[in-house]
Amino acid sequence: MRRLLAKARPGRVDAAAEEVLGSTLAALEEAWRLGLASGAPAVRTRQFLRLSARYLRPHVRREAEMGVNMVASLAFTMVFPFAFRRLVDSALPSGDFGRVVSILAVLGAAFLVSLLAGLRRTYLSAFVSASVVQAIRARMFARLQTLSASW
Description:
83% of the residues lie in helices and 0% in strands. It is an all-alpha fold.
C-alpha cells in the first residue's frame, strides 16, 4: 500500500496500481466483490468440532451438569400432562381433597425443581460461553503479540 501511495500521481492512480499490484483498482475491487459474494469459506465439520472441543474441554463438568438440568426441566414437561389428567379425571370428581392436594404438591415441587434447574442451566451456559470467549480473546491477543509491528 505504501508503494502504491508513493508511486501514485494525480490522474495516474490506475497505472500506478497496475505497476505495483499487477491489476487496476477497478479489477481489484471487482475481485473483492466476487469474493464477498461467494460467501463464507467452507469449514469442515470435523475441524470445527476439534476446535470447539479444545475450548470446551475445561468445562466438561459444567456441560454435564447442564445436561442433567436439562433432563430435570424435561421431566417436568413430561410429568405435568399426566399429573394434570389424573387431577382432572380422577381426583377432582372423586371429591377426595387429600388426593387433590397431594397431586398439586407433586406438581408444585416438580415445577420448583424445573425452575431451579433452568436457572442453574442458564447460569452455567452464560459462564461457559463467557469463559470460551475469554479464552479465544486471550489466544488472539497472544498471537498478535508474536507478530511483527509491520504486520
